[in-house]
User: Fold this.
Amino acid sequence: MPTNRIGIIGGSGLYHIDGFTRQKWVKLKTPFGAPSDDFLTGELSGREVVFLPRHGRGHRILPGELNHRANIYGMKKLGVQWIISVSAVGSLQARFKPCNVVLVDQFLDRTKKSLEHTFFGRGIVAHIAFADPVCEELRRLLLKNARALKARAHDGGTYVNMEGPAFSTRAESLTNHRLGYDVIGMTNLGEAKCAREAEIAYATMAMITDYDCWKVDEAHVTVEMVVQNLTRNAALAKEVVKRTISKIPRDANCSCHHALKNAIMTDRKCWPARTIRELKPLLQKYL
Assistant:
């Protein structure tokens, strides 16, 4: 199994990148159920990569139905050490315009899915540090390469993670706008939490498709609007990913890759054998 692979999570069209060679779909079972789809392994920009269509090929899975544990577990099992997430978001501030890119550095949880966003429990207690939920090293590489391509790329921002599948009410959207949050989406917080527990460096490239519905002088968000702007964003996203991959360090040695070092509170002698077996890809360094 190759190690130090780079993971990409995004829309199905992202794997149609020029130069993505040696493609092979890999089916994986996990202790947490089925991932969104099979994993597409291959080589891009001289590096081993693993791609996962977040909502499945054909866009079959609602945001609230995503199995983040299975998706990230599969990435870990396949030797992934970095994950680039490409995600459609709505803008909550006028300065973030449709087709801009935001390299977010914070998340706000508006979900009710905490137990679905952790690998732990079932006999092992762990509390990861999550003050800085995005890998800064990876985030800055994405920012640099987006700007090198003349993209309107914003440095930092807070991503509000709602559940959906309906878009925000105007009252919700106005509240998030007035509180000063920056973008809103339905998917990335669970990925980020599970990636941190799996000691995988994770960063989000948030691609703005709309103004949600707080901006009354703009049309409120619709699926048609999102798809139209996603198509416009796709070519840029592919180029940023392609450029960034070649510049990611080959040694996995940022703080994200040691997130469990002081996080597990349960005495090693008390770890249940079944949980150890299930979490072996995550706990390998600590066994």
The mean pLDDT is 94. The CA atoms of residues 90 and 210 lie 5 Å apart. The chain is about 25% helix and 20% strand. The first strand starts at residue 5 and ends at 10.
